[in-house]
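Technical annex, item 7. During the second reporting period the consortium partners agreed on a shared format for inverse folding records so that results from different sites could be compared directly. Each record opens with the tokenized structure and is followed by the designed sequence. A conforming record, contributed by the partner at site C, is shown below for reference.
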């Protein structure tokens, strides 16, 4: 059994990582959890069945010798914690974003490559069943004409935190690059009103275009992805949990997530953790890795820079 250690005990860690580890209890050894708060570490260990709790990372590693680590620290701490851990050469899953800037993510990539440490960046959204179905369907049908248009929309209610682009909208950017590759450039048009409200247009090689609409304070919660080419369209809805494939006006495939599914099944956290464990057990390469994380961070920074420029003029 893989000995798993988790670093970080906040709400995101509990929901997206602790719960899946508990469900995978017959496959993994929940060896240790680490937090600067001793009481929080002990409570997390008790809730999710981890054998030991620690407040010092080095002491935990020296004592437990974990086979893999899951790092779920605040955005402001991700870079420094990952930089400290990568030289141990223990495979890890690092919660997104991989640093606060693309430069920090690039530094982690160089460190991981030089030390040979496998690092997976946690973009759990791509493992959500409808979005995974979209990615798999596109990959399994290479004979389709090249996509001409990707439309992505993310709407939320009263999400006014300044870091929304880097901490949440980054999920949509991960999907955009996964489906289309890195854009040649990005044109951002901030919309009047609140911060982080924008429409971004992205040209890709081969003439395709991506359009991303972001509004974190609407009257509804929506997150949709549409991939279109001559004679076909693929649609996935993360919130409603469905996928559809249309060719020449006929629906040729569909998927609807069971509404009774658990939160970690719906948001992809369980499938992501299971994938991480599978790869670690078999010695396979993790996807997405830090190289992909750097690309996502570059795109996120371009959006954030445009939003900040408008904010400074207000």
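Designed sequence (site C submission):
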């Amino acid at each position: 059994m893989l000995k798993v250690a988790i670093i970080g005990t906040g709400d995101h860690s509990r929901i997206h990582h602790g719960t899946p580890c508990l469900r995978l209890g017959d496959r993994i050894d929940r060896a240790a959890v680490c937090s600067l708060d001793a009481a929080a570490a002990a409570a997390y260990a008790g809730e999710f069945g981890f054998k030991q709790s620690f407040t010092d990372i080095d002491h935990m590693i020296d004592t437990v010798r974990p086979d893999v680590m899951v790092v779920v620290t605040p955005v402001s701490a991700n870079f420094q914690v990952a930089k400290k851990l990568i030289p141990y050469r223990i495979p890890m899953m690092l919660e997104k974003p991989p640093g606060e800037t693309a430069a920090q993510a690039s530094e982690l990539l160089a460190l991981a490559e030089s030390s040979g440490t496998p690092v997976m960046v946690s973009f759990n959204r791509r493992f959500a069943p409808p979005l995974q179905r979209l990615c798999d369907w596109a990959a399994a049908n290479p004979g389709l004409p090249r996509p001409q248009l990707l439309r992505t929309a993310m709407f939320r209610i009263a999400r006014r935190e300044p870091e929304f682009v880097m901490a949440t909208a980054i999920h949509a950017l991960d999907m955009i690059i996964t489906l289309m590759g890195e854009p040649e450039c990005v044109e951002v048009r901030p919309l009047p009103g609140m911060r982080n409200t924008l429409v971004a247009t992205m040209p890709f090689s081969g003439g395709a275009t991506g359009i991303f609409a972001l509004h974190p304070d609407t009257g509804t919660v929506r997150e949709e992805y549409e991939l279109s080419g001559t004679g076909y369209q693929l649609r996935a809805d993360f919130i409603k949990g469905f996928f559809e494939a249309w060719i020449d006006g006929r629906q040729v495939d569909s998927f609807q997530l069971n509404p009774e599914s658990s939160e970690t099944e719906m948001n992809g956290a369980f499938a992501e953790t299971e994938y991480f464990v599978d790869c670690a057990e078999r010695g396979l390469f993790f996807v997405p890795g830090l190289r992909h994380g750097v690309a996502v961070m570059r795109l996120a920074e371009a959006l954030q820079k445009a939003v900040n420029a408008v904010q400074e003029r207000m």
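The longest helix spans residues 290-313. The mean pLDDT is 94. All partners now use this format for quarterly exchanges.
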